[in-house]
Amino acid sequence: MSRVRRSAKLRYGDKELAIQQRLRALDTFRGMAIVFMIFVNDGAGGYWWLEHATWNGLAAGDLVFPAFLWIMGVCVPLSVKSAFAKGVPRWKIVFHIIRRSIMMFLLGISLNTIYGSNMLGELRIFGVLQRLAVAYLVSAGFYALTAPKYYTPPRGACGQALKDVLSCAWCWVLAGVLIAAHSAITFIIHDPDCPAGYLGPGGKHDEWVAPECSGGAAGYIDRLLLGESHLFQHSDARNVYGGPVTDPEGLLGCLTSAVQALLGVQAGATVLLQRSHKARVSRWLAWALVFALAGALLAGFSREHGVVPINKNLWSMSFVLVTSAVSLTILSICYTFTDAWRVWDGGPFRAPGLNAIALYIGHSVCAHLFPFHWRVPFMRTHAIRLIEAVWGTALWVIIAHIMAKKKVFITL
């Protein structure tokens, strides 16, 4: 407050940021995302509703990846402002973001060879970590370049109520540009032999209406620029419908993934600029309602018949809005119990959230190794497969708690 009185500008000092960064809800949310991601990747017991939707629609497993991407955006304002408070130059912050993104992208390419080919002519270029790297580079890099080191809250009741939104004005501008670019490409660019604006999986879908048009513009751009041999070869949609290869983490979806990270940045700005628990939670829930309604309207309140169906494979805007709404709701619940009421310390999810990247890489590397995975002669029942998935996930949770107890935290 003394700094505010002297300069009329809000300085993000070390003491203030230390308070902000002790929020248990962020680590708890991230831990929930990584634990459920491991569980889904381990098979989720073979229950369809716990895995991924084949094409349009939303299953429980589809909520994990966008939640992880979104919470990454939430942490961006906290880390950038902390660096400003420590006197780190802006160019060094941007350099660190670029370096971290490159490392994440290269790690993702390496992990792709666990399930795919390691032939240079067949390496899958994009994947989960690569998508995270691109979204992080765009959202964090842009915020680091445009965020003011000092912020003067606008006067008046309206300005005070919207100060967290106004502080991210340039991020909203970038999000609008990305959405416009994604929409234009999706509905204008197309294969010469395919209808414009096609959003289906191709193959035998809808009585072979567009058998060679899998993924619409997204699939066409990936096959054209990356080449079919560098895409994911065994997607669920291709296994069900056939048709050309498509990559669920391809190029075009990077635009809307960056938008989702920017929506997370807005939630993080609320943490920085809104002091009371009620103000934070009420704003998060209000955004959740707005995003949910907007996503449902785009999807036409149906699975198949909307203008922009909810689709993880295409990372459609309706998918971004609905999953961001779910993430905001879950974060509000976590925050209420862990930081506002302090009746929950975040266990057992907080420790995995402190080492999320290490757990993701570890569970990928150990995908076929005992004791994380095992088989018995009769694995075709949900009960046995569920036990095996829970067992493997629980081992990684235990490892995360051991690492936290020994104060071992691995970051890029």
From TrEMBL:
UniProt key word tRNA-binding: no
Organism: Euphydryas editha (Edith's checkerspot)
InterPro entries recorded: HGSNAT_cat
Superkingdom of origin organism: Eukaryota
Protein's name in the database: Heparan-alpha-glucosaminide N-acetyltransferase catalytic domain-containing protein
Entry-linked Pfam families: HGSNAT_cat
Transmembrane segments: 29-49, 55-76, 97-117, 123-145, 165-189, 250-272, 284-302, 314-337, 349-370, 382-404
Residues in Heparan-alpha-glucosaminide N-acetyltransferase catalytic domain copies: 22-147
Keywords, sorted A to Z: Membrane, Transmembrane, Transmembrane helix
